[in-house]
């Protein structure tokens, strides 16, 4: 059985690591700061609709603290703005042929990994999970914690994809092997374009604005010649395997973007979500003013220390020209 190294113990990485460890899988986590200290001291508290469990697994602060094995599978679970530094750590630690799986939003991580390693895999992650308190993650998905699409990058699939899918599914994360997983990831990208909008508006109704931003994103991807997305909000697998449920003692913090702002993380991933649409628009010679506004808004929120809900719908629609 492969050993799983989870690089980045946040909402997604923490849920994956906890679920695997609680199912008897050998896991090594890579974390930092208060999260690392908490896991080492007391394990990782894992809250879900089914109750509260404590997952215990080895956790280190850097890949060079791990005696790497040929059967290791490395899961990247950090935000894209931290990926290059993480990949450089893996290079320095001596990673060579081990499979590197990008369990991350956006579509840039795989390209960054492929510059350094030849055995790169992509994973689309659909998992409602929170990390706001060191030593604790909350998964709101039920009956499964999440849904994953997994495949090789840039295309195809192999035995390592199937092995990881089997491990994830056995640990209550329903997973599928796809030969064209990047089409799935572009679909998830379109879904994530609304993250900064919903974060900035807080409790206000963001539906119309999010729809406009996504429609612009779809048009840009068509202009760029990128295949139509295969994952969307109507994905029938969600009803069968995972819908969001309440968790006792926890309140949903929102998207990964909202969680980063709430934790005061100092950065958010908008440059690699809406920013990907802006990049593709510039490469294709078209305009993407709505997504460009989203990128600029995220930067302003960071620069000015604005909290979620700091922008009104009227302000946003006026700035977007809607």
Commentary on this structure:
- The protein has helices spanning 11-22, 33-42, 83-93, 109-114, 159-170, 181-192, 195-201, 207-223, 236-241, 256-263, 274-284, 289-304, 313-320; strands spanning 3-7, 27-30, 44-48, 51-55, 58-60, 72-76, 100-102, 120-126, 129-130, 136-139, 141-143, 146-152, 173-177, 242-244.
- By secondary structure, it is an alpha/beta fold.
- It folds into 2 domains: 3-185, 3-Layer(aba) Sandwich (Rossmann fold); 190-229 and 238-320, N-(1-d-carboxylethyl)-l-norvaline Dehydrogenase, domain 2.
- The chain has an 8-stranded mixed beta sheet with strand order 5-2-1-6-7-8-12-13.
- The mean pLDDT is 93.
Profile the largest sheet.
Answer: 8 strands, mixed
Which strand order does the major sheet show?
5-2-1-6-7-8-12-13
Specify the CATH class of the largest domain: Alpha Beta
User: What is the count of β-strands?
Assistant: 14
Unreliable spans: none
| Fourth-level CATH superfamily of the largest domain | NAD(P)-binding Rossmann-like Domain
CATH architecture of the largest domain: 3-Layer(aba) Sandwich
In short:
The chain is α/β, with parallel strands linked by helices and 322 residues long. The protein folds into two domains: 3-185, NAD(P)-binding Rossmann-like Domain (Rossmann fold, 3-Layer(aba) Sandwich), CATH 3.40.50.720; 190-229 and 238-320, N-(1-d-carboxylethyl)-l-norvaline Dehydrogenase, domain 2, CATH 1.10.1040.
